[in-house]
């Protein structure tokens, strides 16, 4: 596995880049304050910008670590971060990463997160050299499953009562792409 860390990735409509402390206001207002965004996530909505700032203060020093991958999803059109996408679990021995993501409700339904996920998967396979990229969602949050499908992941199955989020214990639906899937295309 290579350890390039979180490098900037550009897609048609997005710039995926490292978070900066100045993003706290956008982070709070664009997505982290919204209980609809955090409904199926593991963290509570931020109460104010200070909370977003504290979160960023915890994340930013980790960019020093080449195996830390956490991108702000910046929409080119408005030059603001509107969400985030990150490796939430990395198993170096297996060459496998699990991804998590969220985006401002205002921008749902435009295919932006599939665009980001596709680009992050390419990065993790091509630059980092991983063999597997996976993600899971609460069975009651199928729109996240659509993101995984649109980005080219395959359905693996359901792990019953395997996760916990703001709704409580949940069944997890898992999708993944492995390196050999890409060679088939
Ligand atoms: C899940 C999420 C990332 C989807 O991102 P997105 O950029 O809107 O993705 P898409 O545009 O491809 O839409 C995906 C699905 O969301 C649903 N959707 C689209 N617009 C919607 C809207 N305005 N309101 C509710 N759901 C909507 C549709 O089912 C869509 O699938 P379809 O294209 O087959 O109809 C986004 O809804 C989000 O951030 N949700 C909150 C955080 C979250 O649940 N993260 C995933 C945790 S596993």
Oligomer: single chain
Bound molecules: coenzyme A
Structural class: alpha+beta
Spell out the helices and strands N to C.
EEHHHEEEHEHEEH
Uncertain runs: none
Tell me what portion of residues adopts beta-strand conformation: 25-35%
- Tell the overall outline: globular
CATH superfamily of the domain at 9-131: Gcn5-related N-acetyltransferase (GNAT)
CATH-assigned fold name of the domain at 9-131: Aminopeptidase
Q: Give the distance, in angstroms, between the N- and C-terminal Cα atoms.
A: 23 Å
| Beta strands, count | 8
Description:
It is a single chain. With 185 residues, the chain is α+β, with helices and mostly antiparallel strands. The chain has a domain at 9-131: Gcn5-related N-acetyltransferase (GNAT) (Aminopeptidase, 3-Layer(aba) Sandwich), CATH 3.40.630.30. It is built from six helices and eight strands, in the order ββαααβββαβαββα. The chain has helices at residues 24-32, 35-38, 49-59, 112-126, 142-150, 179-184; strands at residues 9-10, 14-17, 70-75, 80-91, 96-103, 132-138, 154-165, 168-178. The chain has an eight-stranded mixed beta sheet, with helices on both faces. α1 packs across α3. The longest helix has 15 residues, at 112-126. The protein binds coenzyme A (COA). The site of coenzyme A has 20 residues, from β5, α4 and α5.
